[in-house]
Design a protein that fits this description.
single chain; 153 residues; mainly alpha; 2 domains; 6 helices; 0% strand
Amino acid sequence: MLFVLFAGGLVSAILSTVDTTLLTAGGLLTHNVLAPTFRITEERTRLRLARGGVIACGVVAWAIARSADGVFALVEEASSFGTAGALVTVSFGLFTRIGGAWAAGTTLLGALVVYLAATYSGVATPFLASLASALVLYLGVSALEHARRPAAG
């Protein structure tokens, strides 16, 4: 009986986490990327788009889960997927005045692409490669952003 309670609680916690993650990813994708890009202001359209985003994120999550070698590999991939770009962006954003929106966006996307490329090309440490590329991208794009700003005066 205790095992059934434990297993039920564990499955419930996992499903709750998955549900929250899918809703968050779909909502953020819709609210921060798709709606502003396509200038969608009607609430009904935004709601439908958010629902579609949740479904799309669910399909992507299902495909990733189906391709995993095991639970350990899936957890490892999930914990490092895209986190290098977020780590660098948040660190510079919180503790310095270096960079801006372009540096942050480029770092997030670039580090994700490098992580995926390194993972699928067989690099032994894809997270470290992604972290190094995120740092280089952030500093490089920040320098370009700084150079493009008009001089104060």
